[in-house]
UniProtKB/TrEMBL annotation:
PANTHER family: ABC TRANSPORTER ATP-BINDING PROTEIN, ABC TRANSPORTER ATP-BINDING PROTEIN NATA. This is ABC-2 type transport system ATP-binding protein. The lineage of its organism: Bacteria, Bacillati, Bacillota, Bacilli, Bacillales. SUPFAM superfamilies: P-loop containing nucleoside triphosphate hydrolases (SSF52540). Signal peptide: none annotated. It comes from Lentibacillus persicus. InterPro entries: AAA+_ATPase, ABC_transporter-like_ATP-bd, ABC_transporter-like_CS, ABC_transporter_ATP-binding, DrrA1/2-like_C, P-loop_NTPase. PROSITE patterns: ABC_TRANSPORTER_1, ABC_TRANSPORTER_2. Keywords: ATP-binding, Nucleotide-binding, Transport. The keyword Nucleotide-binding applies.
């Protein structure tokens, strides 16, 4: 069941299309990774989903309700964490956590709140104006995970967290998912995306250029091979799915589309393999290709 769904969602600023005809959906009980380079349109999409911006065209719904018309109703059941958290400077962290939770119209679950404060090693007694960026993010994260939301919308929620706290955050996301909650996670931390997300959508210049489960995307990745052969290998450049051939003396280094691996290995084996090394494909390589702009078109 899709808890969140957009259909041909478009948001223009003047004549500029920040979000261009995007279709995404987040199913119950899944973590959906929303990734793409700076300025791609992630936060704009999220602001439309939160009812902070009105879509230019297309539709967006959460819990089957229109995000613009039913924002107040929807907000009772979602938790939102932005990357840039602004707080009330004269309230303490603890007061703001309570305030955030009350604004969501729910009673404060004291035990859960205390548990998260402990896990995030957070001191709630200080005035917000004294908190570092990471500590401001903790306020927002603790309030979000302490509230019993059905859908968490997290827009680069960990850009200020240290590695230990990043791990705590990941545990919280996995626990929420295990309880059947849904999470939309926008992130530049690719290892975080790879670890947490069931499916991802890659957005670039307002358009979704790739989407699917991580397993599906893995098929789009390339294996790095280094080979040495008895006879000189010929005809490699004519094979489909072979990239970045680099010949250094006896040794050839190349990238191979994972789905073409079998064919390429067969071809090379005709020349008498002396040495063969291969490095498994990483999703990070795939993501980086999209960030860099070679949107894999030729892959
Ligand atoms: N209020 C606005 N008025 C005009 N242009 C805007 C506005 N908000 C965003 N944009 C433009 O829309 C595009 C998408 O911005 P958005 O903030 O959605 O990117 P993003 O994917 O969240 O990037 P980042 O990874 O840097 O957070 C950018 O080119 C941005 O300059
Ligand atoms: Mg953003």
């Amino acid at each position: 069941m899709a808890l969140l769904k957009t259909e041909n969602l478009t948001k223009k600023f003047g004549s500029f299309k920040a979000v261009n005809n995007i279709n995404i959906d987040v199913q119950k009980g899944e973590v959906y990774g929303f990734i793409g380079p700076n300025g791609a349109g992630k936060s704009t999409t999220i602001r439309v989903l939160l009812g902070m911006l009105k879509a230019t065209s297309g539709t967006a719904s959460i819990f089957g309700k229109d995000v613009w018309k039913n924002a107040v109703e929807i907000h009772k059941h979602i938790a939102y964490v932005p990357g840039d958290v602004n707080l009330w400077p004269n309230l303490t962290g603890g007061e703001v956590i309570d305030l955030f939770m009350k604004l969501r119209g729910r009673d404060v679950n004291k035990n859960r709140r205390e548990e998260l404060i402990e896990r995030f090693k957070f001191d709630p007694s200080k005035k917000c104006r004294t908190y570092s960026k990471g500590n401001r993010q903790k306020v927002s994260l603790i309030a979000a995970f302490a509230s019993d939301a059905d859908l968490y919308i997290l827009d680069e929620p960990t850009s200020g967290l240290d590695p230990l706290m990043e791990r705590t955050f990941q545990e919280c996301v996995m626990e929420a998912r295990d309880q059947g909650k849904s999470i939309l996670l926008s992130s530049h931390i690719l290892s975080e995306v790879e670890r947490l997300c069931d499916r991802v959508g890659i957005i670039r210049e307002g358009r979704i250029i790739e989407s699917g489960s991580l397993d599906e995307l893995r098929h789009l990745t390339r294996t790095h091979m280094i080979v040495e052969t008895k006879q000189q290998v010929t005809g490699l450049e004519d094979l489909q799915g072979v990239h970045d051939i680099d010949i250094k003396g006896e040794s050839i280094s190349l990238q191979v589309n994972t789905e073409e691996l079998d064919k390429v290995v067969r071809h090379i084996s005709q020349f008498g393999v002396v040495k063969l090394e291969s490095a498994p494909p990483t999703l990070e390589d795939l993501f980086m290709r999209h960030y860099e702009g070679n949107s894999g078109g030729e892959a």
